[in-house]
Design goal:
- This is Phosphoacetylglucosamine mutase.
- By secondary structure, the chain is of the alpha/beta class.
- It has four domains: 156 residues, Alpha-D-Glucose-1,6-Bisphosphate, Chain A, domain 3, CATH 3.40.120.10; 113 residues, Alpha-D-Glucose-1,6-Bisphosphate, subunit A, domain 3 (Alpha-D-Glucose-1,6-Bisphosphate, Chain A, domain 3, 3-Layer(aba) Sandwich), CATH 3.40.120; 143 residues, Alpha-D-Glucose-1,6-Bisphosphate, Chain A, domain 3 (3-Layer(aba) Sandwich); 79 residues, Alpha-D-phosphohexomutase, C-terminal domain (TATA-Binding Protein).
- The chain is 41% helix and 18% strand.
- The chain contains 18 helices and 19 strands.
- Strands 1-3-2-4-5 form a five-stranded mixed β-sheet, sandwiched between helices. Strands 7-6-8-9-10 form a five-stranded mixed β-sheet. It has a four-stranded mixed β-sheet with strand order 12-11-13-14, sandwiched between helices.
- A hairpin with a 5-residue loop joins strand 9 and strand 10.
- The protein is globular.
- 2-acetamido-2-deoxy-6-O-phosphono-alpha-D-glucopyranose binds next to loops.
């Protein structure tokens, strides 16, 4: 049975603030760091139960608030294959986090153990990490108390990126199997990615230096380390690398700044020459945005949609060149935020599916293809190769030298891509491979298709829970009548499209609009926002 006395003693040191309600949402738990002590302690307990339930497999815990302000923090659980926590357990996390007293916490634990039929005699193993936020250290201590309370075998992965933690979880759990994911260390990750990258660009002309905006976050040290492994195969020039001065994480820089402001981080202005490509990571290095300045100094953004288009077309071509187009189906997964220009470009080339916002939806939909490419416009995404496809690629006998080369490239792509979750550094290597193979600069990449001008606005409403959507969040079913008013407006705009959805991470409703010209996209967004308000 549960070690009640130990749990009670430790839980009393991490009381829940009375006035707060916590919700395990699309990004796990996320709020001000100072409010998270009790939540993180309880996540430690839950991670132990999850591991026991899965026969002692290692579960991941990541403490980060990603692109959000420095004072925020958050926590997410990672399942044994390196994926997001199974959806049905989100409710268990929420229940534990909201138990008001130590007694209710213990009875909630008891209920979970019996309703989920958890065998408490099983071992529990966890690997955990945090980003560079100032609240991180004390939250890790709360988490460790949670581990202590359930006698969990815990491995501290230190300060590292979200995708590296996901990698470690998968690597640890596949260590003794026929298909180890990689060495279960940060060096193992670096070696796997950089090794495959070097093979993929061998024989190509030297790649010019790439500027990376590290958002003053945890991506800094990982990018620095990766740069050493890459050597001259990809020279990296790092900016926004100050992870200790207070207040500057994600501030005026980073992938979310670039996407939402659609402009150059001011700190890069003196460093970026026209035509030179650069990219931004977010605060935990799981999102990536590319950009460049044209000859007139105008800013051009290459977002998740552009990355998806670049990568998917490349993979489709390789599959054809390998003589496998009859055997391997490549598909794309997007959300409603995907630019209409990208959806048109991609639909002409391969199957495209639209799913609700949030990585778990994209990831699961991508698993239905042999090779599934998923990217959110915000720069989060990856490519999944199904297990059967990986076997096929490894065992297929090519009949020409050209087929053989394409096959080798595909097998190396499997290695360079972090398939557990979106990974800014892995995605960056992927992009650089395609640019090198296509001999593209940012300009040619950008011209694959033209983005429709678009606008995203936030609307604060009294109760966002009344906004209910269908059709992958592209249509509202509630409040009644609102969707037909939106439809009437949209019809008045050339290439107009607009949708309204409640945010999963903030207490707001989001309105997206696009149209043929900028002024029309802005106008449509504000008129739809007017209907919502
Ligand atoms: C979270 C999601 C991200 C999504 C965003 C939407 C994960 C790991 N992250 O950051 O995919 O784009 O939420 O936020 O699932 P919103 O619901 O506030 O628009
Ligand atoms: Zn992130």
């Amino acid at each position: 049975s549960l070690p009640i006395d130990t749990i009670r003693a430790l839980a009393n040191e991490h009381p829940k603030p009375g006035h707060l309600h916590f919700q395990y949402g699309t990004a796990g738990f996320r709020t001000l760091g100072v409010n998270l002590d009790s939540v993180i302690f309880r996540v430690g307990l839950l991670a132990g139960l999850r591991s026991k339930k899965l026969d002692g497999k290692t579960i991941g815990v990541m403490i980060t608030a990603s692109h959000n302000p420095e004072d925020d923090n958050g926590v997410k659980l990672v399942d044994p294959r390196g994926e997001m926590l199974e959806a049905s357990w989100e409710a268990h996390a929420t229940a534990l986090a909201n138990a008001t007293t130590t007694d209710t916490l213990i009875s909630t634990l008891d209920q979970l153990v019996s309703s989920l039929r958890i065998d408490l005699s099983k071992p529990a193993k966890v690997v955990y990490a945090r980003d560079t936020r100032p609240s991180g250290a004390s939250l890790v201590a709360s988490l460790e108390d949670g581990f202590r309370a359930l006698n969990i075998e815990a491995r501290n992965a230190g300060i590292t990126t979200t995708p590296i933690l996901h990698y470690l979880v998968r690597a640890i759990n596949t260590k003794e199997t026929k298909e180890p994911y990689g060495d279960d260390t940060e060096e193992g990750y670096m070696q796997k990615l950089s090794g495959a990258f070097k093979k993929l660009v061998a024989g190509k002309p030297a790649i010019p230096p790439l500027i990376i905006d590290c958002a003053n976050g945890v991506g800094t040290q990982a990018a620095r380390e990766l740069g050493q492994y890459l050597g001259s195969s990809l020279p990296l020039v790092l900016h926004n690398t100050d992870t200790t001065s207070p207040g500057i994480l994600n501030h005026g820089c980073g992938a979310d700044f670039v996407k939402t402001q659609q402009k150059l981080p001011p700190s890069l202005a003196a460093h970026l020459r026209p035509g030179q490509r650069a990219c931004s990571l977010d605060g935990d290095a799981d999102r990536l945005m590319y950009f460049y300045l044209d000859d007139r100094g105008h800013f051009h953004m290459l977002d998740g949609d552009k990355i998806a288009a670049l990568v998917a077309a490349f993979i489709v071509d390789l599959v054809k060149s390998a003589g496998l187009e009859e055997d391997i189906r490549v598909g794309i997964v997007q959300t409603a935020y995907a630019n209409g220009g990208s959806t048109k470009y991609l639909s002409e080339r391969l199957p495209v599916r639209c799913v609700p916002t949030g990585v778990k939806h994209l990831h699961h939909a991508a698993e239905h293809y042999n090779i599934g490419v998923y990217f959110e416009a915000n720069g989060h995404g990856t490519v999944l190769f199904s297990p059967e496809t990986q076997v096929k690629l490894a065992e297929h006998q090519p009949s020409t030298p050209a087929q053989s080369t394409a096959l080798t490239h595909l097998n190396n792509l499997v290695q360079v891509i972090n398939q557990t979750v979106g990974d800014a550094l892995s995605d960056m290597l992927l992009v650089e491979v395609v640019l090198a193979h296509r001999s593209y600069s940012g300009i040619e990449w950008d011209s694959l298709y033209v983005d429709l001008p678009n606008r995203l606005v936030k609307v604060v409403v009294p109760d966002r829970a009344i906004f209910k959507t269908e059709d992958a969040e592209r249509r509202l079913v509630n409040p009644p009548g609102l969707q037909s008013k939106i439809d009437d407006l949209v019809r008045k705009y050339e290439s107009g499209r607009s949708f309204v959805r409640p945010s999963g991470t903030e207490d707001v409703v989001r309105v997206y609009a696009e149209a043929r010209v900028r002024a029309q996209a802005d106008e449509l967004a504000f008129r739809v926002a007017g209907l919502v308000y």
